[in-house]
Amino acid sequence: MTRDHILAAAYSLLVEHPERPFAHEAVAREAGVGARTVYRYFPAQADLFEALWLRVRRDSGTVFPTAEAEIVPRIGVLYRAFEQNEKLIRAVMESPAGARVRARGAPEGRAGFDQSLRELTQHMSPAERRQVRAVFQGLHSGPFWQMLRDRGGLSGQEAIAAARWAAQALLDTLRREQMNARNKSNTPQQEGDPTP
Fold first, then answer.
1. Domain residues of the chain, as ranges?
2. Which pTM was predicted?
3. CATH number of the domain at 1-43, please?
């Protein structure tokens, strides 16, 4: 119960006052408990950010695709959750504490996209696979949603449509490249043809 109270205070500090310093002592003041109590439940700042990440993920609807078929539909689910939790999402993106919280989800996102894009990228080099994964992670992120909304001047629905279009175009391109790679590897060598 105390842990949840401290986490709620940390969450409130992050969302309602992103400009304030974020440390165990600040969380303790927000929660109305001693700093030692905060340290007891969250010994390191990393522990506090990990717990906040799980809460932000739950409240923002952040779910990474684990199959190719989930990539395009998940954008709509994710962006609608961003719209419903706009203040939280903007706080997570715009404050130093929020950036550290967001960083906690990066490894999980990379693993999800590695899995969902595995078949389409198996013909690529490791560096190319990382680049493709990074682009899809970007499309499925709060900063990309924010850029579409703020700099692109798009409504929530338009942002979803634009991101879905981009993801689908990329998937279609990857499928064509995969087919070309398969066709190239299945083409028998003619006598006298130069070695590829």
1. 1-43, 61-184
2. 0.73
3. 1.10.10
Q: How many CB atoms lie within 10 A of CB 111?
A: 13
What is the SS3 assignment for 92-137?
HHHCHHHHHHHHCCHHHHHHHHHHHCHHHHCCCCHHHHHHHHHHHH
Q: Per-residue pLDDT tens for 40-57?
A: 999 988 788 878 877 877
Nearest alpha carbon to residue 176 among 98, 111, 120: 120
Residue 75 and residue 36 in contact, taking contact as beta carbons nearer than 8 Å: no
CA distance 189 to 85: 57
pLDDT 10s digits, 125-179: 999 999 999 999 999 988 999 999 999 999 999 999 999 999 999 999 999 999 9
